[in-house]
Every structure is written in structure tokens, then in C-alpha cells.
Amino acid sequence: MSAPVGAVDKDRPSPEWIAALRRRFPVEREIDHVLTRKLERRAGPPYAPLSLETLVEGTRALLSGNIAGSFEIRSPRWLSGGASKLQMAFELEREKPGRGRGVEPVVLRMDPAESIVCSSRLREYELIRAFDGIIPVPPVHCVDAEGEYLPYPAILYGFAEGVAKPSVAAPKVSGIGTNLGAALRERLAPQFIEHLGRVHTRDYRNAGLAAFDLPQTPTQSAAWAVDWWERVWEEDGDEEEPLLRYAAAWLRAHLPAADRLSIVHADFRVGNFLFDETTARITAWLDWELGRIGDRHQDLAWTTSPAFSHYAEDGRTWLVGGLLPENAFFEAYERASGLRVDRRSLHWYKVFNAWWFAIIVLAAGYRAARNGKTHQDVLVAWLIGLGPMLMSELRGLLENA
Asked: Are 16 and 83 in contact (CB under 8 A)?
């Protein structure tokens, strides 16, 4: 369906409109690159099912240019999970220097034609490498940042053992309303908080993060974040939402000054780590695609979002992140990290997180599903139903600001 006369056709954006958006919303160079690439390719065909043979062929070409020696791809299969990325698992047989020939499980994580979260595989690759040996992460092998070898940008990393939720948990989207149960919660919460502290105290200056820009003022990381997601709203939204406009103006008027810069995971929550059910040990942290250098309060606000929280078994105690009461959570974080929690910055990021999450489901998710650009169109359409809850949360946070 064509756009009304005089309106912008966001499904076939003009170069002039794209250029105007880039000027209006200055963001980090790599974020600008992936958002611009999304718009330049938007008029292309919708997502079409890909064969495993196609992915294996592209993966073979990618590996040939990045690892030494002969190798063989065995037992390729689709891997379920992930609302925004395609995933294929396989076994990689190859010769390792000094260790002989062996087999290891590998995962291909690849964009669809258009993702509900448009992000950089290169940044994801760099972040996972940066935390190897610091917190549990899967090993990463190589990245196809521009989709030179595969149909879309992709990353190859080692398969991590573990589960994202208890085997007895109700079938829900991972992390949303997940109840770990009292016994698991008690053992996982200290690891969760310790790992979050390690993320925020990692020295970003020697972490190999070449695809990240460093904020030059105390408020620039917050300003970049607002520009990023307001640009996504302009690119993908179809209806005016006065509350989202008001929230953007409020966020810009109250930019918090970061007292220190930290690496921010930006999706640090239950559902994004794997754990061993028998030992209750966290085995891998996943989904680094939104990571940035910014203010640690972004993670703290996201982890404690109502979307990932629930009441304890007594029906009265509210567990943030499904782990601990909020005050206990922050006290444990301050002990583990040596960093304080500033309640004013925390509230700003709670407003910000509710705002950008609403933009994802009401704009990016809506357009990707409507245009048939994702393999997860049913799930993405379901996520749009979270919109009213997020808007209600956003309104309450702004009223209490």
C-alpha cells in the first residue's frame, strides 16, 4: 500500500529522508551504519525461508577466511529461541594447533531480513571477546559483519551448555515472568549480581572495543541513547503516540551525568543467561547485541523492570528481576561492585527503558512483522501486545518523576 500524498513512505525511504534523519539524530558511528543500512535495504524482498544448505555453504566460506587448516561442518540443524535472530547449530571438526583434530559445537547467529532490534554483529562479537575469562560467555570464532558470506550479517560462537529457565517452568517467552523457584533463586542471585558488577568494572579502554565510540561529556551517553531510539521511532512508527513524544522531551530535558563510564550489557536479565540445573551454576551470558559504553544505571534499571519481575511465593514480596527485593538487590550490587546506586539516575533510566522497550514493540516489531521481514512474525506480533503495559508503566514513571 502506498503512502498518502505528501507523507513519507517508510517502506521505501528516500536517500534525502535517510540523510535528514542522520543529521537530526546523531548516534555512534556503528549504530548509524546499521540503522542506515536497514533503511537502504528496506525496499528489498521480505524474509524468505532459507535452507540449511545455504547457511552451511555461507558458514563454510566464512570459516575458510578466518580459521587455519582443514575443517568439516557436521550435523547442521535449526536452533530454536531468540525473538530477533536466526540460529543454526552444528558440529565443527577441525585441527587445533598442538591439540590434534577435535569436534566442538558451534552456533550461527544471523539477522533476518529486518530485525526488531537492529544492532551490530561486530559490536556483539567484540563484547563477548572482551568478557572471556571475566564472566561466563560462549567462545566466539568469527563475525560476518556485513553479510559478505551469509545472506545477512552473522556471528559464529561456541555452543554453551545450560538452560535459560527451569525445565518445570511454564512455557513463556524466556525471561518474561520466569519464576526460577526459591531454591534456584537463592543460588543464582549471588552469581547474577557478581557478574553484573564485573561487567560494570571491566576496563573498557583495553577491551578491544574498536566499534564503540567513547562519550566525550558526562551526559553524551544518555543523549546518544535517546537519539538512537527516537530515530528508530521515526524510522518505524506509523501512528503518533503523544506519550512517547512527551517522554522523549522529558528525557532530553533531564539527561543524567554519568559519574563514571562502564560497559553496559543493556539486556542483563533472567532469560539471557544459561545455567546448569543440577549445580545452579551460570554457564554463559548471551545477547550482547545492545551493549554500549555508558551509564551502569541503564543495566540496573533494566534488570529491575516489572516485565522481568514477579511476586515471591508468599504473594507479597516483589522480586526485582525475579531474584531479590529491590533494596536487597541494590545493596548486594553495591557490595559486589564497589559502585553506588544513584536513585535519580536510576529513575531516569527506568523511564528510558520503558520508553525504548515500547518503541521496539510498537514501532520496530510492528513494521518488521507487517512487512514480513522476520522469521518470528507470530512471536513479534505477540510482543506488540506488551505495548499497553509498557505505556502504562511509562506514564506512571513520568508521573512520579
From this structure: no
Backbone angles phi, psi at 88, to 5 degrees: -125, 135
Distance CA(130)–CA(209), nearest Å, equals 8
Query: Do residues 107 and 138 make contact, with C-beta atoms less than 8 angstroms apart?
Result: yes
Read off the pLDDT of residues 320-367 as tens digits, 9 standing for 90 and up: 999 999 999 999 999 999 999 999 999 999 999 999 999 999 998 889
Beta bridge partner(s), residue 163: 275
Spatial separation of the C-alpha atoms in residues 103 and 106, rounded to whole Å: 10
DSSP summary character for residue 246: H
For residue 4, what pLDDT is reported? 47
Secondary structure E strands in 137-212: 140-144, 154-158
What local confidence, expressed as pLDDT, does residue 399 receive?
A: 96
For residue 172, pLDDT over 60 is answered with no
Query: Comparing 65-79, 119-133, 277-291, which segment has the lowest mean pLDDT?
Result: 65-79
Q: Concatenated DSSP letters for 51-83?
A: -HHHHHHHHHHHHHTTS-S-EEEEEEEE----S
Question: What are the phi and psi torsion angles at 76 (to 5°)?
Answer: -65, 140
The helix (run of H) or strand (run of E) holding residue 318 is: strand 318-319
Terminal CA-CA length for the chain: 41
Grid look-up 536487597 returns 328
Q: What is the CATH number of domain 15-399?
A: 3.90.1200.10
Nearest to 33 by CA among 43, 24, 22: 22
Higher local confidence (pLDDT), 93 or 168: 93
Burial of 355 (0-12, 13-18, 19+ CB in 10 A): buried
One-letter amino acid for residue 293 of the chain = I
pLDDT at 174: 54
Highest mean pLDDT among 39-43, 294-298, 308-312: 294-298
Distance, CA of 394 to CA of 389 (rounded, Å): 9
